[in-house]
Write a structure and sequence with these properties.
There is one protein chain. By secondary structure, the chain is mainly alpha-helical. The chain is built from 9 helices and 5 strands; from the N terminus they run αααααββαβαβαβα. The longest helix is centred in the first third of the chain and has 52 residues. This is PA domain-containing protein. Keywords: Membrane, Transmembrane, Transmembrane helix. One of its GO terms (molecular function) is carboxypeptidase activity.
Length: 328
């Protein structure tokens, strides 16, 4: 039975060339005819293969050219859209920003004309004429006044009642800060550094508006009541790194009152860092170098005023009294 074995690395053209060479060798009488036939067939084979190979290359080159042309047109179109005409050509390498200063001045004057300085001063005075600590009668009266003012301007105003955790000082018995001095034979003497409230300062009108003693009391909201006594240790901003620096210096804050500047960390975290290291108290103060400009009378008669924006009993929930769905 005849059998044909096919090698994948030999093409039909190779087989035909080999067969033709064998026939030429049998029929030829000399070497010249064999050499001529072999050369002729191989040349025809190469010519045929070359004619088929140039088509994919030409197609790929045409496709690349078309894509390059399309990309170039898109870039030119984007530049034409984004480019804006300029009155004067920009110097090479310099981006010129054109501003209409006359228009800006006109807008500034129009805005300034809408403000009434006397009215602003009047509003500030009636808003600050009495202390209005959150949750007090004065605060409720201020809310009603604000609602009336906005309604008079045409706004629709709604007020809501909230149940929150608030903290108030003992206005009649404010906090004090004292330091013990050793006077030798006379024994220890306590010298008062702070009586727990500030002194009204500024123009006489401002002083008159602060005659209510409640506006002068200093206290740290939500801190524990009590009396603490211990040596004084300074701890910069009261960060974890600051306390570690003290530890590296061999300074122990256990049983001490730590003096800490405001800044770099919220107050509650400063106190927490001191508490977990055994401190019995923390004194927070504003560094004049950070908060007060030269020539100001704010220090030492003023204290830092902190504000809160949520109910500290439920810090992760809002305080709006909206109906809520109970999930079971």
């Amino acid at each position: 039975m005849p059998m044909m074995v096919t090698r994948p690395d030999i093409s039909i053209d190779d087989i035909l060339v080999k067969e033709q060479l064998m026939n030429d060798e049998v029929s030829s009488n000399g070497q010249s005819s064999l050499r001529t036939s072999r050369s002729s067939l191989i040349k025809r084979k190469r010519t045929a293969n070359t004619g088929h190979n140039w088509l994919p290359v030409a197609f790929a080159a045409s496709l690349v050219g078309i894509l390059a042309t399309v990309c170039l047109l898109l870039v030119l179109a984007c530049l034409a859209i984004r480019q804006k005409p300029c009155d004067q050509p920009s110097p090479s390498g310099v981006l010129m920003l054109k501003e209409d200063n006359e228009k800006l001045d006109r807008i500034s004057k129009e805005l300034a004309a809408q403000f009434d300085a006397k009215r602003i001063g009047h509003n500030m005075r009636w808003m600050a004429e009495s202390p209005h600590i959150a949750g007090t009668v004065e605060n409720a009266a201020l809310i009603r006044r604000l609602r009336e003012e906005y309604e008079r301007l045409g706004f629709v105003v709604k007020t809501y009642n909230y149940t929150v955790l608030l903290n108030y000082p003992d206005f009649d018995n404010p906090n004090t800060l004292e330091v013990k001095k050793d006077d030798g034979d006379e024994g220890d003497v306590w010298m008062r550094l702070s009586r727990g409230h500030g002194h009204p300062s500024g123009p006489q009108q401002a002083v008159n508006e602060q005659l209510d003693g409640r506006s002068e009391v200093w206290w740290s909201a939500y801190s524990a009541n009590g009396t603490a006594e211990g040596r004084l240790v300074y701890c910069n901003f009261g960060t974890n790194a600051d306390f570690k620096t003290l530890e590296e210096m061999g300074i122990d804050v256990r049983g001490a009152i730590v003096l800490i500047r405001y800044g770099a960390l919220v107050r509650s975290e400063k106190v927490e860092e001191a508490e977990k290291r055994g401190a019995v108290g923390v004194v927070l103060y504003s560094d004049p170098a950070q908060y007060i400009h030269a020539g100001s009378n704010a220090s030492p008669s003023c204290a830092r005023f902190g504000r809160g924006s949520r109910d500290f009993a439920t810090p992760v929930f809002d305080i709006f009294s909206k109906p809520r769905e109970t999930l079971s």
